[in-house]
Specification:
The chain is mostly helical. The protein contains 21 helices and no strands. It is 66% helix and 0% strand. The protein starts with a helix and ends in an 8-residue tail after the last helix.
């Protein structure tokens, strides 16, 4: 009870620091004492500092203002990785401290940006990065429900249009007056079993089809967190059966209705009634058709054609959920084609569902904008039509459409500003554009597909790496949340 009442700036870093015992133990067991000692000393140093910080803050009354929670999230994603980057910098032996810091920010935001060269990290570091990404994915999930939901940010501002305002207001009244830490742990207790059971079942299923326990555990942890990093030495393990399991797990990143009933309707939930799943099904179908059409010239025979169909579906679903895993059944060279690159970039920009670990614009906003565009076209073609429905409902839909349009414009402005900033540091325009898309959408695997070659992030100047770190945090917290900090009303 005392631990749950501690400020989140102390309790959450404490858990992540204790998690560094995982790579420490693996380093000692595998025979690399340098890795084990580096992470063990980092654990001691982190717990030592946090303990004294906790003692110094005893009896302090912390503010419960809304802006304090947002500032805490920004400091968590930008400041805390500096401590986690110390053992990575000591063990990796490649690049500078800024490279280790950028890699940790990429892991904490579940972006998966390829900072280090493929295969250059040891198995201990791979296990540490996957474990950290898995824990960060859960934290992002809980942050959405405990911080963004009460503030009506991160897509929650549109949920009232779906007849869920009453349920949300009741939930807000139940948590009124509680400390932010208590709200966080309340949601963690609710979502933790779901997150853990999905990971365990996925790992067990992958173990059955692949027979590789290391791959099964790491890939399950990375997929549920939409953290699409490569696992060296385990590429392609599991075949089509493994990809089917991963595709099933990715469905949880398309809609909050797949795992939560807080905002669900009282009657039985149906897939055809969920707007996010409907939009996702249409996008995946269109993207898969494009990939099949582009790859048809590379395959011959019925078996190869069926593999192409499955590979197109899996890759489209993976990039829509901002996981970024490419199917092993796609023909070689298909990912370098311009139409395929455009489709994958568009899917990553749209992203997954509200209150999930996926990034991007979010499917609900796309659904609202599409519906509003259809209504405006109908009004232009038939200006004298009679529209049925309540006035309040129509006004709320118009307000949601305006918010979605504002977010889309801000998202485009952020893409342009980040691309321009990277070009000023010396990066070519195309390289800067792919770096921006990979970071702002939190889809790091977009980077290797850009132009068919992997951009070496370590070769970028320090200014560009700091811009990439800020872009990943901006994409994870969304620009509307940061824009809210500029509103004077939030400080009253």
């Amino acid at each position: 009870m005392r631990f749950q009442k501690l400020p989140l700036a102390i309790s959450i870093p404490t858990l992540l620091i204790v998690m560094m015992m995982i790579p420490s133990l693996h380093g000692f067991i595998s025979g690399d004492s340098h890795e084990g000692r580096s992470f063990f000393y980092a654990v001691l140093m982190g717990l030592f500092g946090l303990s004294f910080l906790g003692f110094s803050l005893q009896g302090t009354v912390f503010p419960m203002h809304r802006h304090a929670q947002l500032w805490s999230l920004i400091s968590f994603f930008l400041g805390f990785p500096m401590l986690l980057a110390i053992p990575l910098y000591e063990v990796s032996g490649a690049g500078g401290f800024i490279d280790a810091y950028l890699d940790i920010v990429s892991t904490v935001t579940t972006t998966g940006l390829p900072v280090f060269a493929p295969g250059s990290l040891s198995e201990t570091l791979v296990i540490w990065r996957v474990s950290l990404g898995w824990a960060s994915g859960f934290l992002i999930w809980v942050f959405a429900w405990s911080i963004f939901a009460p503030l009506n940010l991160g897509g929650f501002e549109h949920l009232g249009a779906r007849g869920e305002a009453m349920t949300r207001s009741q939930s807000a009244r139940q948590t009124a007056g509680r400390l932010p830490a208590e709200k966080f742990w309340r949601e963690a207790h609710r979502l933790g079993p779901v997150y853990l059971w999905i990971t365990l079942v996925t790992a067990l299923a992958l173990l059955i089809v692949s027979g590789d326990p290391t791959y099964a555990i790491l890939r399950a942890m990375a997929t549920i967190a939409t953290f699409g990093i490569e696992i060296p030495g385990h590429t392609g393990v599991g075949g089509m059966s493994g990809e089917v399991i991963l595709a099933f797990v990715m469905l949880f990143a398309l809609s909050r209705s797949t795992f939560s009933t807080v905002f669900a309707r009282a009657r039985k939930w149906r897939m055809t009634e969920d707007p996010e799943l409907r939009v996702a099904a249409g996008l995946v179908l269109v993207a898969a058709l494009v990939l099949i059409g582009q790859g048809a010239r590379y395959v011959e025979g019925l078996g190869a054609g069926l593999e192409l169909i499955w590979g197109a579906f899996f890759t489209s679903l993976s990039f829509l959920t901002t996981t970024g895993l490419a199917s092993e059944f796609l023909p070689s060279g298909l990912m370098t084609l311009d139409p395929v690159e455009i489709i994958l970039v568009a899917l990553a920009m749209i992203g997954g569902g509200v209150a999930t670990t996926a990034g991007g614009i979010k499917l609900l906003r796309v659904f609202i904008l599409a519906g509003h565009s259809q209504a405006e076209v109908n009004r232009l073609t038939a200006p004298s039509q009679v529209i049925s429905g309540q006035i309040a409902s129509r006004s709320h839909d118009h307000h949601s459409a305006m918010l979605a349009c504002v977010f889309l414009v801000l998202f485009i402005l952020v893409l342009g500003a980040t691309t321009l900033a990277l070009t000023l540091t010396g990066s070519p325009v195309k390289e800067a554009l792919y770096l921006t898309l990979a970071t702002v959408t939190n889809t790091g695997p977009l980077l290797p597909t850009g132009g068919g070659t992997q951009t070496l992030v370590m070769a970028l100047p320090t200014q560009a790496k700091m811009i990439l770190a800020a872009a990943m945090v901006l994409g994870r917290l969304e620009v509307l949340a940061l824009l809210a900090l500029l509103n004077p009303d939030i400080y009253r």
